[in-house]
Amino acid sequence: MSDTPTTTDRPPPVCGWVKLYHPSGVLVTLPVPDGSFDYQGAFANVGQAVAAGFLVDAPGLEAGEMKDQATWVVRKDVENKNDGTISASIALYRDGERYSFLTVYLDTPEEISAFQYASGLKLNQLPKYVGSGKLEKGKDRQTDQLFTKAPKAFGVVMRANPKHDPNETDATKKKPARLFVRWEAQMPPPKVLSNEEQEEEVTRWFTWLDSQVKPPTLDEVNEALPSLSQLDAARKRQVWDKLAKYVQPHNWVFNREAKRYEEDRRPVASAADVPF
To answer: Which residue from 256, 70, 258, 109 is spatially nearest to 187, judged by alpha carbons?
Structure first.
């Protein structure tokens, strides 16, 4: 007797897939076959999996949070409509996909440091995309040069945006589908430096700012600012005074809210008001 399955033994061809939620909160991907399917059995199996101890939310995530992996990024500088300040935005792309699944805004030195720690990339080394809309990967050879691949895929935690309307056709009113929560890889707390190490850090700052060969750029200064959190108040003020003299001919001013320098002509912050 032949073991070859007959036509009636073969499962019907799948015409598509549908994503549906189980009452437990599990998002299930189910086939839509050209024929019948045991949806009641699938429903019961998901319930048994949850009852056996499988988790609805990934470990380390709060309710409503989701995690994904990014491999490619595109940097774009955007202007804040409220105060005219400039922030870096990072569009994240999954490996093998053409469209960005999330955009993250980096408004402070701490946020820049967190991105760099999670991704293994340096913000000031990313090419800047100047244009409107989001880039489609693989569409154009010239714009593909603006994509940067991370050393390895890195995790990002998101949540659904309750203000997102998938039916909104006005691009100026449409809200993103997902909101950034945090990077999966979190930076360790700042190291507590000894007095000797703090003096070395101050010397490093002074030598760096005095460099005639390669003076620090705006991005490089902002990237280095979080390191001041390792210094005591007196040494912070020393560096802050030095910075105030360095930025003056560059027309950079310190944005207290964003905790970074920007190209602007507003009054320079007092050296006595150390923001770190």
So the answer is: 109
DSSP code, position 250? G
Which domain covers residue 15, as residue numbers? 1-56
Residue finishing a domain among 161, 183, 205: 183
Contacts with 228 (C-beta within 8 Å, 6 or more apart), sequence order: 236, 239, 240, 274, 276
Looking at the fold, whether 157 and 258 belong to one and the same domain comes out as: no
In the sheet that holds 148-160, the strands lie side by side as 102-106, 86-93, 65-79, 148-160, 178-183
The fraction of the chain above a pLDDT of 70, given in percent, is 90
Task: Tell me what percent of the residues of the chain surpass a pLDDT of 90.
Answer: 50
User: Which residues contact residue 251 at a Cβ distance below 8 angstroms, ignoring those fewer than 6 apart?
Assistant: 263, 264, 265
| 3-state SS assignment for residue 218 | helix
Closest C-alpha to 114, from 173, 187, 168, 9: 187
Give the mean model confidence (pLDDT) for residues 68-89: 87
Say whether 157 sits in a helix, a strand or coil: strand
Instruction: List CB contacts of 272: < 8 A, sequence separation 6 or more.
Output: 237
Residue 207 has pLDDT above 90, yes or no: yes
Residue 230 lies in a domain: yes
Instruction: Evaluate if pTM is beyond 0.90.
Output: no
Burial class (CB in 10 A: 0-12, 13-18, 19+), 219: middle
pLDDT of 79 > 50? The answer is: yes
